[in-house]
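assembly run, all chains below
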Amino acid sequence: MDNKMNTAVPASVNHRMEVIIGALLRAGVVFSGSVVFLGGLVYLSRHGFETVDYRVFQGEPEGLCHVGGIVKNALAMHGRGLIQLGLLFLIATPLSRVALSLFAFAYQRDKLYVAVTLFVLGVLVYSLLYR
Amino acid sequence: MNVLILTILIGLGSSVAGYLGSLTGLGGGFIIIPMLTLAFGVDIRYAIGTSLIAVIATSSGAAAAYVREGFSNIRIGMFLEIATTAGAVVGAFLALRLPTHAIAVIFGLVLMNSAYLSSRPQDESGRPQASDRFAVLLKMNGTYPTPHGPKSYGVRSVPAGFGLMAIAGVLSGLLGIGSGAVKVLAMDQAMRLPFKVSTATSNFMIGVTAAASAGIYLNKGYIDPVLTMPVVLGVLIGSMLGARHLFGVETRKLRTIFGAVIVVLAAQMIYSGLKGWIIK
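ok done. output:
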């Protein structure tokens, strides 16, 4: 019984990690939602009465498809760039949750889960930087 | 129709989808794709990209609440995310190559199957107390809160759960959905986790799974900011309201109605996919 207890992770450590992760997720969603909303206001105030067509897939312009272009467009206060930046923050929210878990597992000296988390983080970063 | 009116209509539709999705626990993403393609005539590639972003938003919001309640198992989630994220990348590349009509048909079939999976009654009998060797090695056993204090549970059949999770990941990346029903199936049925732990951990994983294909979608121009903005904001507001009303309404009746709506939408997706295929 004693041996079994030693391998288990203390409940208090897990709980603290859960509280921090919960706060991080909430903050990420609220923040990115606000940026998307702001970008939406900017875009609609300038282009609200134009028409759009999504029937035919054309893909997005180069500047709205990758991190560098989006940041540049957003800094220029372009509505669509700002929305896209907000969406990037949203995509980054689960990513930062995984990054935070990496620190938590490292702190618990749990090598196995540090490796597991590194793999997941690697896949996420690969997708985000995919060109 | 100008952008302003389109934004308002899509925003309203998405709020309703988010509200019903969170009340019934089926997720709002399921309604988004049929709504955009069937009602607004949006190309399914834009619809998939938009839906995936909405899935990240709602699952992150819901996971925040679940994690604090202490039902999600962070180690199980992280380990199975190896399978879901890798699967999601494969799914996203598949989405780039498959014809859109095929995607519509697959979407309809998966939708029907998910409606069936989530309509089955929950059965908490015969849950294991002890974990098998693999699960012990991976430190997966845990406890969950009950009115009588924390209760411990065991974990079984990790490889089977892992395989199902890979499928859930591929479907998520291919169709822009959270595939929560398959994730719950993997943990609840294969790994024999308590139902509440399964649903909470599934929700916890959905955001990370979706993020794994979102970058590829973004790069390929599937994510249109003007279309995504009202969907994300609408679904977020709707699901927040839904979570607040969760105990006030008869969810059982609602689930049945929502399930019926889903079956009709799924049938229409399959029909339109097949029609486009044949005529083309």
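The CA atoms of residues 28 and 93 of chain A lie 5 Å apart.

Helices of chain A lie at 2-7, 11-47, 67-75, 79-107, 111-128.

not gonna interpret more than that til we talk
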